[in-house]
Write a structure and sequence with these properties.
Elements: H1 3-10, H2 14-52, H3 58-63, H4 69-79, H5 85-97, E1 103-104, H6 105-109, E2 114-115, H7 116-151, H8 156-169, H9 173-187, H10 207-237, H11 240-247, H12 252-263, H13 265-290, H14 295-304, H15 308-336, H16 338-341
Antiparallel strand pairs: 1-2
């Protein structure tokens, strides 16, 4: 065989090498997606079972004192509540898989049929705006203060930042919210106590209504994020690669940016994923506290009228977002850390 033939036989095409390099990530992502789907399937059973055993139903809540006789039976049949539990679960899951969340009990109460999606879509958009407005400052502030305090560990700035951010982080959302209300509404009277945003309006057109909800979410989350990023940055600064870079005479700024910060990037991704997942649950409490027209308030109203279909659908939507964030963060970390793709070799 000629030399050219040997070289050709021993060298894989660049595209084949690239595909092999990314195969572990694709396989890992496929496994995580499969596990996520299984998790959601089990969760759907638990959610449906939990809401089904609650006393009363939407038809009785809608009719109130008139909830008896043929009228009740007719409404239950119209809402599909007279079917067996197994059929109700199958109809619900089948609708979810086809993007049909069914009809809301609020529509039946108003004398018509209103889909759950039309009932919650605007509220979901409002919640997404509030979560994003809180998430962006959390990223910026925690990255800045986490890196700075790590570089000045045990210094006065480190102690001040740790103390000031630990106080709001140690408080539950409703306690911190009450404190902010006392300061900015009762004492200073500069911000409204509740979000008086008209139905269907864009929350961004009412910036003053967003300040207290955003401050509450940022306050309870930033302290944790700062401490986690600080810990990851400290570990990175003590790593072998950073030590070798310093011994080779590389300037400190380049060592911090190119080596330490890069090594701390993967843990930071997980931290921000946890913060994003927290916002899914924490935002429900904050919305209820400030009467913000988001999915949290809508969920409370749905529970009040026994709208199990809407409660189940909203819970599954939030759970799907939660699982998707987990999978995305894990895949990003695997892309950032080569050892995970090679099994630690």
């Amino acid at each position: 065989m000629s030399l050219a033939g040997v070289e050709h036989a021993g060298t894989a095409p660049p595209r084949a090498v690239e595909r092999r390099r990314h195969h572990p990530v694709l396989r890992y992502a496929a496994r995580r997606v499969a596990a996520g789907v299984l998790t959601l399937a089990v969760l759907s059973l638990l959610v449906f079972a939990a809401t089904s055993v609650l006393p009363g139903d939407a038809a009785s809540a809608i009719l109130g004192k008139q909830a008896h006789g043929p009228q009740l039976q007719h409404l239950r049949a119209e809402m599909g509540l007279n079917h067996s539990i197994a059929r109700q679960y199958g109809d619900w899951v089948g609708g979810l898989l086809h993007g049909n969340l069914g009809n809301s009990a609020a529509g039946y109460a108003a004398g018509g049929q209103v889909t759950v999606w039309s009932q919650i879509s605007g509220k979901l958009a409002n919640s997404a705006i509030l979560a994003l407005l809180a998430f962006l400052p959390i990223i910026a502030v925690s990255l800045l203060l986490g890196v700075v305090t790590a570089l000045r560990a045990t210094g006065w700035l480190d102690h001040v930042v740790s103390t000031l951010t630990l106080i709001p982080a140690a408080l539950p959302e409703f306690v911190l919210g009450a404190v902010l209300l006392a300061v900015f509404f009762t004492w200073l009277n500069v911000l409204p106590p509740v979000s008086l945003i008209p139905p269907g309006a864009n929350p961004l057109d009412y910036p003053s209504e967003l300040v207290l909800p955003v401050l509450t979410l940022v306050g309870v989350s930033t302290g944790y994020a700062i401490r986690m990023i600080r810990a990851g940055m400290l570990d990175s600064l003590l790593s072998e690669s950073v030590t070798m870079a310093r011994l080779n005479g590389i300037r400190e700024r380049r060592v911090v940016v190119r080596y330490a910060a890069r090594n701390a990037l993967a843990p930071s991704v997980q931290v921000f994923a946890l913060i994003a997942q927290y916002l899914i649950g924490g935002i429900l409490i904050v919305e209820y506290l400030y009467n913000y027209p988001g999915i949290g308030k809508e969920l409370v109203d749905a529970v009040a009228i026994h709208d199990n279909l809407e409660v189940q659908s909203v819970t599954m939507l939030l759970a799907t977002i939660y699982v998707a964030i987990t999978i995305a963060a894990d895949v990003v970390v695997m892309l950032l850390v080569p050892k995970l793709r090679t099994g630690g070799r």
